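User:
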Amino acid sequence: MTTAGTAPLSARRPAWAARWRDLSWLAVAVTVAIFAADVVQLVTHAGSPAVQRIFQNWLYDGVGIAAGVTCVARGLFSRDRITWLLVGAGIFAWTAGDIYWTVALETAKSPPYPSFADAGYLGFYPFAFVGLGLLIRSRVIQFSASVWLDGLIAACTVAAIASGVVLSDVWRTATG
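Assistant: Predicted structure:
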């Protein structure tokens, strides 16, 4: 929809923008491929300990970088620009924490707490929270009580599944 005297958004974009938008799909494909390779190695434990370390550390960090690039690429060519850039910034913050852990703390006998890795991990949440909030705001026309209830049910479901999967391992390995 255009007003008098303005061209549609697609007509105002330069030709290179369409090529970059197509590359955002390439970023998704690369992210999925790296993640799939990492999952296959994690499940099969294929390779020597050095290969396993490369997959568990560096390829895992590569998934975060590729996911962040994918969100930023999406943000450059989307009407929800700020939303995707914020989510990408959150992913980059988390990945920076992972990279710092891999480089500086993984082999430490007693890693410091809190560390810069923790700052990266915690940096994910404000960016992602605001980004996802903006995404929801742009998609939902009216927030009725049923929409809030749906969100609450989804949050409780995710929390229940996560606690069921993780809690037994945490309980078994916790000390003190």
